[in-house]
Amino acid sequence: METNDFFTAEEKRTLFSLYRKLIRLSGDTLLEGDCKKLRADLIRSIATNRIQRDVFGLNPVIKDMQTAVIVAEEIGMRRASILGLMLHESVRCGIYKAEEVAASYGEDVAGIIRGLIRVNELYAKSPSIESENFRNLLLSFAEDMRVVLIIIAARVNVMRQIKESDNDEARRRVAAEAAYLYAPLAHKLGLYKLKSELEDLSLKYTEHDVYYHIKEKLNATKAARDRYIDAFIAPIKKRLEEAGLKFHIKGRTKSIHSIYQKMKRQQCPFEGVYDLFAIRVILDAPPEREKQECWQVYSIVTDMYQPNPKRLRDWLSVPKSNGYESLHITVLGPEGKWVEVQIRTERMDEIAERGLAAHWRYKGIKGESGLDEWLNSVREALESSDAGGLEAMDQFKLDLYEDEVFVFTPKGDLFKLGKGATVLDFAFHIHTGLGCKCIGARVNGKNAPLRQVLHSGDQVEILTSNTQVPKQDWLGIVTTSKARTKIRQALKEIAARQHAFAREMLERKFKNRKMEYDEGIMMRLIKRLGYKVVTDFYQAIADGTLDVNLIIDKYLEQQRRETEQHEEVIYRSAEAYSLASPSEGQGRKREDVLVIDQNMKGLDYKLARCCNPIYGDKIFGFVSVTGGIKIHRMDCPNAGDLRERFGYRIVKACWAGKGEGTQYPISLRVVGHDDIGIVTNLTSVISKEEGVMLRSINIDSNDGLFSGTLTIMVGDTVRLEALVRKLRGVKGVKQVERN
C-alpha cells in the first residue's frame, strides 16, 4: 500500500505487516478484485486528509486493520464484516457514500457500514458512551448481530493499544465501560476468550496495583501449579489412551479478573483461592459420537477422582442459548485440592473460544442459536419501552449475565428461560395472549401461583381464564424483559381504553346539562385539583375515586372565578412601582454552583455523604434510580465500584463560578502525641482561620497517642488545604487526613 505523511515510520511498518496478515486470514473469503479496490479506496481516503486520529492519538486506518485481524482470526467473521470495518471510516468522513460502497462491494457490506457509523456517531463526543445514548446504542446493536461482534473486537483492540496513552481520564472511562458493557456482552455471545481479556485489561487500567499484585503471585506460583497439573493429568491421559480415544489435554489458569472477584466474594487473600485453574479435555470425535465419548471421559475421570455432585454442569444435553456446549465436573485431586475438569470436543471448543461466528459455521449440526430470539426480545423491549437509557441498560445487563433454566410443556416441548423466571414469565414466553389470561399453572402436576419460581426440569401447564387481565403488580412478579415489556404494553392499552371511556362519560354529562366544554378551563381545573398529567385525572374518574358530578361543580366554580377576575382588573400607577432592593433578591447565596454534564445547570443534585465533596474537589455525578444526581469526589472510596458496575450512570460535573457563600461539612482525622494542651491548640488554630467554623471535636487517647475527628464547615478546597497545613504544624500532631 502507498502511504503519505499521515503515517509515522513505525506505523508504516505496522501497516504493511497487518495488511499481509489480513490478506492471509481472509483471502479465501474475498472476491476477485476486492483487495485491489480496497487498497485504492484506502489510499484515496488517506489523501483527502479528512480522516483524523482519535483521543488517544491512534491512527484510524491501522486501528481498523488491527480490529479486522481480530474479527477474522479470533471471531472467524467473513468478507462483508472485514470490508465493512475497513471502509466505514471513509464513509463516515464523507469521502464515499454508502450507495457507492453498495455498488462496488455489495449491499451486505454497506449495511454493516451503516450500523458501524450509527454506533460511532454515539461515540463522537466521548471515548465512552454517555448515559442518555445507551438506548440508541442498544437499538443499533439489535439491528445486526455482526455489528455487535465488530464493535466488541474494536473495543478489545482499543484496550490493547492504549496502555502507553497519556490520556489517563479517557483510558479509565474506556476501561470502565469495557467491564460493565462489552465484557458481559461478549459473555452473552459466547466470546469467552475476548470477555476475559476485556475484564483483565479493564482491571489493569482501573485497579493497577491489584492487577499486578495478582499477576506477580500467579508468576511466583506457576512452577508449583504446573507440577500439580502434570501429576493430575498423567493417570487420566494413560486411561484415555488405553480406551482408544483421540484427544489432547490442557490446563487453563483462571483470569486475573475472576481471581480478584473470588477474593472479593470470599473476602480472602490470593492464597485463599484454591481453584486457580481448570483442566480441559478436548476430544477429536465425529459428530455422531460426540456425546458418547464426552460421557465416556466423564466416567473415566470420576472413577479416578471423587466428584462433587453439586458442581456438575451438563451443557451437552441442553446447550446454552449462545451455543456453548460442554460438560463441567469438579473432582477432588491429589493433596485434597478441588479441580474443575471441562470435557468437550474440538467443535465445541471452537464455539466456546470464537462464539457466535463459529456456531454459525456448525449450525447444520446443531440448528439455530437462541441468540436471534434474545436479540429480537432486546429490540422489542427497547422500541416499546418508555424507560430512559438507565433503566434500559439495567435490564439489559441483567439479561446478559443471567443463567438459564430449562422447562417443559405437557407435550414435552423444551423452553429456555433466565434463572429466577416465574410461572408468569413462562406464560408470556410462550405467547402474549396466554400471559395476559394466566391465572396460575400446574407445575409437575401440582397447582402453582403466578409468582412461583421455576427450576430446570419442571413440567409446566399454564392455566387461564377469559376474565383475567394484566395488573400493575405483575411487573413485580416477572423477571424477564420480554414479559415486563408485554405487561407494560397491555397495561397501556387498558389505561388508554379506560381514559377514553372516562373522557366520553365526562363530555356526555356536559351535553346532558347543556353546558359548553372549554378545554382550557378544564386543563386549569385539572392542575388546580393537583394532577400533574391529564391521564392521572381520567384514571381517577375510571377508578371511581373522582365523581363526575363533583367535577362539573368544580368546573362551574373555576369558570365563575376566571370571569370575575377578568372583570376586576386593577390598573396600577407607575408611581407605585419600586425596584426590589438587593437585599431581597440578590443577596441570597447562590444555589447553582455546579455544572453537570453538557453545561446543564439547575438540575436536582445532592452531595454524597460517603465522601463529602466541597467546592474545588475534582468531582463526578452519579444518576440515582430516582432521577436525582449524587455528586462524588473523584477519589471517593466508592468511585471504583460505581464506575465498574454502573459506569453508564456517571456524568461529568464541575464547579461553576466562585462558590462563595456556601459552606460544606468536612471531617478531618488527626493523630499525634497525647498532650493536655493539644485540643486547645487545635481549636485555637481553627478559630483564627477566616471562613472556617468548628462544629464538633472528638478525641480518644491510648498509650501516649491520641486520634480524633474534627468536623468543620469550610467553603472550598483552598481554605481546607491552608487549614490542614496549619494543623500539621501544631506541636505533637503527626498526621492530618481528610476522611
Protein model, in words:
With about 750 residues, this protein is an alpha+beta fold. The protein folds into 5 domains: about 10-205, Hypothetical protein af1432, CATH 1.10.3210.10; about 215-365, Beta Polymerase, domain 2, CATH 3.30.460.10; about 490-565, no CATH class; about 590-655, no CATH class; about 665-739, ACT domain (Alpha-Beta Plaits), CATH 3.30.70.260. The strands form 5 sheets. Strands 1, 2, 3, 4, 5 and 6 form a 6-stranded mixed β-sheet that branches. A hairpin with a 2-residue loop joins strand 9 (about 440-445) and strand 10. Helix 1 runs parallel beside helix 3. The radius of gyration is 33 Å and the shape is globular. It starts with 8 loop residues before the first helix and ends with a strand. Residues about 365-370, about 385-390 and about 565-590 have low confidence and may be disordered.
